Protein 1
Amino acid sequence: MIGQNITNAMQERSNEELYEIIAYAEDGDYIPEAILAAKKELESRNLDNDTLHAISEHVKAQRELKKERAKEPLSWPARIAFFIFSGGILIVILIFISYSMESKGYKRKGSESRTTSFWGFIFWCVIAFMIFKGYKR
């Protein structure tokens, strides 16, 4: 039953996805049965060498793009925005934005935006504390 489910799942994958599963198996969380099913499915599609080479180059380029995207730092205007707007209820929205960036491959941006939001939140808490402490006198 599990084998048939894996086979069906691999039939729905694109040529690029199958190639990536096979070529970069150590990077993924695939069980050996899934890797074998990907190999069989890609072989069953009878792709010529030129097509396989083009797929290989495309997958390599996409992986490099993902690596570069993951290293991109958060821009200074974005840092300032995350810092300033981290006070109050907006912190929740900023956290969602942060995780959205990370899910799109911008790992460093996501991490830096959460760190900046955290320090901005601390800043606004200190300001609020100082203001309310001043009113009690």
Note: The mean pLDDT is 89.
Protein 2
Amino acid sequence: MAIVPELPEVESIRRHLEPVLTGRRVTKVEVFHPRTVRRNVAPSDVVDRLTGAVVKGLRRHGKFLLADLDRDLTWVIHLGMSGRILVAPGQLERPPHTHFVATIETGDEVRFVDPRTFGFVAVLTPDELVALAGLGPDALITLPRTPDLVRRLSGRRAPIKALLLDQRILAGLGNIYADEVLHRAGVRPTRPGGQVSTQEMSRMRAAIRPVLNAGIAAGGTSLADLSYLLPDGQAGDNLRRLRVYGREGEMCRHCGAIIERVVVAGRSSYFCPSCQT
């Protein structure tokens, strides 16, 4: 299984990068793969806009990492399927698939490593940033109230799992944490979103922040392939805490039933047939 980094992974990265980058000037920018900077018109735009800029602060929206610069620009990073951010001294050898490097005034390098090149790095004006996003409210910071969530899903026939993955509805949840939320709420991933009751939606909403915060506290979820690691090279420790994701054929930690797997919207979804209806 390969993880697409979700909100807890990106937030964990943000917290690691914040003391490294905040208040620091970017002294050099190198782009080694044009696809990595495809959201700008040309690679030179990223180099010119970021070189010499000072990072004022780091924030996050959903799965997007956003560094505000002193030039009324925003340095945007999205990890895609396999992207990793590493911070290392400039004299250390760069790993394979290092497609972007920003050197800061301390001499450390912020390296974007992305074997599958689905992620990207961009430096955007305010207008460009608005055009890029199209995201719903952040699942942790601006989680809508239950009636709003009910309205957003009213009449929707798509499975509730697929709707939780739709970043236009709610930004930040992905395959792992959506499964964990649905298990805590007692809702099967295949249920049509429009058929989820207000009571069930309330349970889902109540589960979202605890599930995400637990992932953040553990530094995110690193699977066996280690495609996700923290910027210091350490693995996230949330895997052993998961209730259902990746546990097909194992016993539910709540009721003892056997965890099952079903494919929803092309993604493996794990659930307890006893706890979730």
Note: The mean pLDDT is 95.
Protein 3
Amino acid sequence: MKNLIYIIVLIASTNIYAQSSIVTDELYLKYEKANLDVIKNPTNGHNYELAITTFYSNFTDYKERIKFDKSKDKENWLNKNYKKTAFKSADEGVAVYNNLLKSKEAIDGVRNNIQEIQNELLKKYDANLISETLRNRLKAAK
């Protein structure tokens, strides 16, 4: 029984020590900041959702939306078929579509940045340690 208690204390202290070393790592701090920025400033996500809603709400017929989604050249499709939508002109349709693409690029850029940092962290630390440390620190930051 005494040995079991020692093992539990050893595991707990090892975990605490491991977390204390990760929280001083510059790469981890960069990872944490990137995640905090997404949580505190969800503008990219909101802009993307708004762009999707704005763009697809102009399709009055779901069959036309399906045709648009299947087309390989989306801008060309809008130029030729904007009258089958609620867009006032082909230019408006293309502009709203391009806004959708820019919003998606912004959110993908943030996601890719976080993923790259996480991949580098995984070379140094266990995935569970990274996620547990992040979770604990985000709770503490609230």
Note: The first helix runs from residue 2 to 22.
Protein 4
Amino acid sequence: MRILWLTNIPSPYRVDFFNELGKTCRLTVLFEKARASNRDESWADFNFENFQGTVLHGLSYSADSAVSFEVLSYLRKQNYDAVVITNFSSPTGALAIAYLRSVGVLYYLESDGGFRSGGRIKTWLKKQVIRGADGYFSTSEENDKYFLAYGAKSTQLIRYPFTSIREKQILSEPPSETQRRAAREALGITQPQLVLSIGQFIPRKGFDVLLKAFALQRDGVALCIVGGEPTLEYLKLVESLQISNIYFVGFKQESELRTYFTAADLFVLPTREDVWGLVVSEALANSLPVVTTDRCISGLEMVAPNSCGLIVPAGNVDKLSEAIGRLLGDSELCLRMRTRALEVSREYTIERMARRHEHVLRERLRANA
């Protein structure tokens, strides 16, 4: 089976997925850009092992997309059994869709997640691009609604487990209290309990809400935010809230993050909106209960129905503080959630993600033969 895949950048988790999928088919992947301008340099360190990866030439359009007419030269070959497009929101993806429609070639669209948004004009434009695919790979119920709103049919939806985690990255059991204490000591954290969060210091991530909620917690709890340098706005907020037990940590590699996950009692993603939220998968794989919002699709899909954390309204300081306090004050509940987190993680792996795609595409190829 020969598959052509169009996407924006070779992000680490996508390259892992392509390397896994490439074990079972002849996979060619076209990337719009080599890296996103708003990502850490480590995202440019990719290794194409089991697939043919090509970075197209084109003009940069946004942080992670470009305009490339070179894509047409690959589509004109028409020697692929399936074409999958994940960059359908970019000019290159839209160009590819227009060409495939003009020559009558079947194709699939895939999304990490999405919320319906925009006025009449934007909705009309999205419908022109999204409608007409042969199938839609969707991560969740919310993602289903997104595709349906823009022209997909319910019979065309294909659910798949989206993640950045490989099977080997999932802990076999929750860390012991001794292991957690040792991890906190290694990080220089003296408080007996730790709340962990990871992300960029941008308004959408909601760290201002987290800081306000954390200021309401009792003594003996530390907050660690990993992922970047706080701007002056956040530093002033910390000062005004008189928070002293907080640790701001820059970007960390996966191997370094393991110590932070081990040291933590729970993970919080206070996002105002995440169309998925891969850090939720990472936290669950490290046996952490997760507190996130009703605007985080991975939380709605993985956490809410599986009792491995709590969901709060986005932007609500009091509800977020209440959820954090509840988990920190109930060790038995946290332990149950830690165990359940690992069970859920095993259902969302790169390997399962690849097998699902391979099975669906192969079965559809047989049906169309």
Note: The chain has 14 helices and 15 strands.
